[in-house]
Design brief:
Helices cover 59% and strands 8% of the residues. By secondary structure, it is an alpha/beta fold.
Length: 749
């Protein structure tokens, strides 16, 4: 059986020649399976006219663009990649609502472009059949057409178009081939002079449709709201799905009826939900019968199959994956270094220019220590972000990323995650910010959120200065195992592993409690191998870099300025300003006793002003809280100041111990000052348990405002960064407390 689809409403222009028709504005949704080239096609259609945001109330990224063609303006909405329109969460329901025209603050769409991988056409038609069910005017795009030609497979496009009754376009999106034909098809879709030939299939048996109609009528009667027929279908098919949850929230008395209908259908050989893949794949096979001609099986065994055998082998696969990851982290951690140094140099030059042009004072401090430092703290992450997404874009576009997820899935399922979580977590060892942004490759919402919440536990590069300072100052430089190992190196290795070890039970607990639910099936197609497209790689890196600067950067910048204000006010800075003026005067030469005396005075005044500031007062206030960790108020101030960025603690300790903020973890003067530091009763401030408790705290605490801001942007809610900050701070405190108290049992005093 078949039905027809309605053409979108428009003013009749059937009697007007095409080149004289009035221009109109239409809204078109782009949808498709993951790894079909959907984002590439979106970029090819919309070009640089794209905007990224979030749908209100959910975490789904909203990407919109537009293009003009033959006088018509087409607004394009890029929906998240999905294998089906069977919403299990509120996030997944967004795509269905957009296609139904019921998404709040979103204009109803006029048509949908469904892009499919032409080399896996039968499987991809599952999603397309659901789009036809929605009754939305559609265009079917067969992407990766060049791969079809290479495989010697023949697809009769004209016959397929005749059977479906809709436009079918072949494309190679990564090369821009077929993009103009899609634009033509979009315009022609709204040309009323052409007959409407679209065919809407009736897939389900008669008893299913009867049950669906009965349920549809009951829902509308009991709730008083109009229910689209597609959602009535989902209500029957999706056990514990989002549609069922929403409907039962309005009227729980419908639950017995839903269960009764499902039970009756099961007894009539129409089991729920197994009936859906049966009828949809059956329809796809029927549509493609005689349309696709494949070469004999012997021809299918190609070089890429041998390559796949190596890349997905249980032994060689992980080894190759580890080598690729090592190269990627090398790029993020080391190759980005010179670029980050260059950015910091520019930041330093800008600060020097302001210092040379302005007299010391609050305004200069705001510009140098607040604004310039704030901008620098954002831009300095850009090389790492760009390198990470450069690698991800290359690995995705060449087809390897899907195989990497397949290889790591067995390991990650031990803690309830999927193989797709591995790359974001490993990326977090360089920096949690790109790691959290990389979770966008995880389709399952629960897996994505758990990955985001444990990613900051990985020992990022910002923790290294703290580890090195404490290890160099307080861990003996002793050989172990006959000189095979060094104690300092072993301690550093343990602390690098600590976050990952702690993340395992945290992820497991989150998956068993807050993110409890039926495990998402790990469904992933292995796309064909191909050379990455430079254009595609560029667009993806550009998109992510722009999103980072525009969305997270503003919040990171504001946080930095706020912390500057807390460390500057209140306090009389006039004496410090006078000393700074003398230091910068031409009469004081570098290295002279006068210059050294002024520098010493500057350090003393800076330490005193920090002690009097809001930040310093807070450090004194929390001393009773940190004392059980073996710390005093000075470590309390250092820790508070480092919550926006943990590496700040080094400079803060330098200021507190009267060395100035321009010290680093290898500064012997700072190490000597820490070793000589005493409590008021004369006992040493630091010993090995105190040093270890400091390292444990910094290893487990969420001391990175930029990470929390990115998490806020990615989740579209303050709830998750607040939760992450709270649980990690509590975890860090308890860990540091146990480390110090147990450590003191061994050292005695």
């Amino acid at each position: 059986m078949s039905g027809s689809m309605t053409r979108p409403e428009s003013a009749s222009q059937s009697e007007v020649p095409p080149n004289q028709r009035s221009p109109r504005s239409v809204h078109v949704a782009l949808i498709g399976n993951p790894n079909t080239g959907k984002s590439t096609l979106f970029n090819a259609l919309a070009g640089m006219n794209a905007r990224v945001g979030n749908y209100p109330g959910v975490t789904v990224e909203k990407k919109v663009g537009r293009f003009r063609h033959e006088g018509h303006e087409v607004h394009l909405i890029d929906l998240p990649g999905t294998y089906s329109l069977s919403p299990r969460t509120a996030d997944e329901m967004v795509s269905v609502r957009v296609l139904l025209g019921t998404q709040p603050q979103e204009k109803p769409i006029d048509a949908a472009i469904c892009i499919v991988d032409a080399t896996h056409l039968e499987r991809n038609l599952y999603l397309f059949s659901q789009i036809l069910d929605l009754g939305v005017p559609a265009i079917l795009v067969l992407n990766m057409w060049d791969e079809v030609l290479k495989s010697e497979t023949s697809i009769d496009v004209a016959a397929l178009q005749e059977r479906l009754g809709i436009p079918v376009i072949t494309t190679v999106a990564r090369k821009g081939i077929g993009v103009d034909q899609i634009k033509d098809a979009v315009v022609e879709l709204f040309d009323e002079s052409k007959p409407n030939t679209a065919k809407r299939p009736e897939l389900f048996p008669e008893n299913f449709r009867a049950a669906q109609q009965k349920l549809h009528a009951e829902v509308e009667t009991r709730t008083g709201r109009a229910l689209p027929h597609y959602l009535a279908e989902r209500l029957l098919l999706d056990v514990h799905g989002e549609t069922e949850r929403e409907i039962l929230q309005e009227d729980r008395s419908l639950n017995p009826l839903i269960n009764e209908l499902r039970s009756e259908l099961a007894q009539a050989n129409c089991p729920i939900p197994a009936i859906e893949p049966r009828v949809r794949y059956g329809w796809a096979r029927q549509i493609l019968d005689g349309v696709i001609t494949k070469p004999a099986k012997g021809h299918l065994k190609q070089k890429k199959d041998h390559l796949d055998a190596w890349l997905t082998h249980r032994v060689t696969g992980p080894v190759i994956f580890a080598a690729i990851m090592l190269l990627m982290f090398q790029a993020i951690y080391t190759w980005a270094g010179p670029l980050m140094d260059a950015i910091e140099s520019v930041q330093g030059l800008a600060a020097d220019a302001v210092i040379s042009a302005m007299a010391p004072g609050a305004l200069r401090s705001l510009i140098v220590d607040g604004l310039i430092a704030g901008v620098g703290s954002v831009v300095v992450f850009l090389p790492q972000i760009a390198f990470l997404f450069l690698f991800i874009a290359i690995l995705e576009d060449c087809g390897y990323m899907s195989r990497a997820a397949y290889i790591m899935d067995r390991l990650m399922t031990k803690v309830g995650l999927s193989g797709k979580s591995f790359v974001p977590l490993m990326s977090s060892y360089a920096c949690a910010i790109p790691g959290i942004m990389a979770t966008r490759t995880i389709e399952d919402r629960r897996d994505r959120f758990v990955t985001m919440l444990v990613a900051p536990l990985m020992s990022c590069s910002a923790r290294l200065p703290v580890y090195l300072l404490m290890i160099n100052a307080f861990i003996p430089n002793e050989a172990m195992l006959g000189g095979l190992l060094n104690l300092q190196g072993v301690v550093l290795f343990v602390f690098y592993l600590l976050g990952a070890v702690v993340a395992v039970p945290i992820a497991w607990i989150l998956k068993k409690t807050w993110f409890k639910g039926e495990p998402a099936p790990f469904v992933m197609e292995l796309p064909s191998f191909k050379f990455p497209s430079l254009r595609v790689v560029f667009y993806r890196v550009y998109d992510r870099a722009k999103a980072f600067l525009a969305r997270a950067g503003t919040l990171i910048f504001l946080t930095t300025v706020i912390v500057w204000a807390l460390g500057y006010f209140p306090g009389d800075h006039s004496q410090l300003d006078q000393v700074m003026t003398q230091l910068e005067s031409p009469g004081v030469e570098e290295g002279t006793p006068e210059e050294e005396a002024l520098e010493d005075q500057r350090r003393q005044l800076s330490a005193s002003l920090l002690d009097q500031s809001f930040l310093g007062r807070a450090g004194h206030a929390i001393e009773p809280v940190v004392r059980p960790l073996g710390w005093d108020w000075r470590l309390g101030i250092g820790t508070l100041a480092s919550f926006p960025a943990r590496e700040v603690v080094i400079g803060t300790l330098g200021t507190i111990f009267s060395l100035g903020g321009d010290v680093d973890e290898s500064d012997t003067r700072l190490i000597d000052r820490l070793r000589a530091a005493r409590h008021e009763n004369g006992e040493p401030l630091f010993n090995v348990p105190v040093a270890l408790s400091v390292m444990v705290f910094f290893a487990l605490c969420a001391q990175c405002g930029a990470t929390l801001m990115v998490m806020r942007r990615e989740t579209n809610s303050w709830k998750w960064p607040v939760f992450s900050f709270a649980y990690m701070t509590l975890l860090a405190y308890v860990g540091a407390l146990l480390t110090y108290q147990i450590g003191m049992l061994f050292v005695g005093t």
